[in-house]
Each structure stands twice: as structure tokens, then as C-alpha cells.
Write a structure and sequence with these properties.
single chain; 180 residues; mainly alpha; 9 helices
């Protein structure tokens, strides 16, 4: 299956910067999730379970969402850039993050303690909403980060001028022809 997807352009090219786009989209998707965590009281419960201050829980959460966003962009490849169904991929990924993080890793890290009741519901909803926001935002964030073909053509990747990029590009016009 991976070969089939690769044959049809599944893997993003080097000009697309999928990991950076995913990390930024993950960070931008975090405020709605934090709002849900606060509304359900889940953030305070998580902090108590982990025996850390709420600020440390927030800081760790921002870091995890950036890494998870980059992972989302890497796993889903070009499919993550589909603005029509990205929200659905994102929600599925948010569910996977909830299953892996809140259901598996949190109890392991806390000696078996896990949120229950409203706090558990808030944690679940926050990650699914985070995933939906990630899926919605990634195509737009990713579009802003892509290099154009023209700018990429000006930067040599091999040859003697690759080590001296300023020497080569300083003599080029917009057409790519050397100035005389």
C-alpha cells in the first residue's frame, strides 16, 4: 500500500516543509483545546495526576501538540493538505493521540491514575477538537511555508556553486540568466 501511495505523489517534496507546517498548525490548534480543558476542569485534574503545576502542564501540552502536529503532517503526507477532508483526518488523529496519550501514557506516567467523569470527557473532547482544528489549519499554514519552484531553482543543491550560494545567486536576474 505504501508503494501505491508513493507512486501517486503521497510523499511531500523537499520544498513543502511538512514537519514545520504540522508543528505550527499543531500550536495554532491548541487554544481551542485548552479552552475545553479549562471548561471541563481537565487541566487541573491532569496537573494533579502528574503532580506538577498547571503552568508546567500547559507548557508540556504546547510542546506535545507541536510534536504531534509534525507527526500528523508526516504520517498523512499530502493527504493532510486536503482542505475538504482534513478535518476528518485531524479528528481521527486527535482520537489516536487521546488513546495513546490519555489512555496509555498518562496512567503509565502517573502510577495508574487517570482522569474520570467530566475531566475525562473534557480531555477526550479537547483532543478531538484539537485534531479537527489541526486538520482544518494545516493546508493553510502549509501553503504559506512552501517554497516556490522559482526560488528553489535559484538555490543550487549540487555542484561547485552549491557551497557558495551567494556568489551564484547574486548574478541572476528574475529570468535565471546571468547578468553581463
Amino acid at each position: 500500500m505504501a508503494g501505491f501511495l508513493g507512486a501517486h505523489g503521497y510523499d511531500p517534496g523537499r520544498t513543502q516543509r511538512p514537519l514545520l507546517g504540522g508543528a505550527l498548525a499543531g500550536l495554532l490548534s491548541t487554544p481551542p483545546a485548552i479552552l475545553l480543558l479549562l471548561c471541563f476542569g481537565s487541566l487541573a485534574v491532569e496537573a494533579r495526576i502528574l503532580d506538577v503545576p498547571t503552568a508546567a502542564t500547559l507548557g508540556g501540552g504546547w510542546t506535545v501538540t507541536a510534536v504531534a502536529g509534525a507527526l500528523y503532517a508526516r504520517i498523512f503526507g499530502r493527504a493532510a493538505n486536503d482542505s475538504r477532508c482534513g478535518w476528518l483526518f485531524g479528528m481521527a488523529f486527535g482520537f489516536i493521540v487521546w488513546a495513546g496519550g490519555a489512555v496509555l501514557i498518562l496512567p503509565l506516567a502517573s502510577g495508574g491514575r487517570t482522569p474520570a467523569g467530566h475531566a475525562a470527557l473534557g480531555l477526550f473532547l479537547s483532543l478531538v477538537v484539537w485534531g479537527a482544528a489541526l486538520g482544518i489549519l494545516l493546508p493553510y499554514v502549509h501553503r504559506l511555508l512552501r517554497k516556490s519552484i522559482a526560488s528553489e531553482a535559484r538555490e543550487p543543491s549540487s555542484g561547485p556553486s552549491a557551497r557558495l550560494p551567494h556568489a551564484r545567486t547574486a548574478n541572476l536576474k528574475d529570468t535565471g540568466e546571468p547578468t553581463r
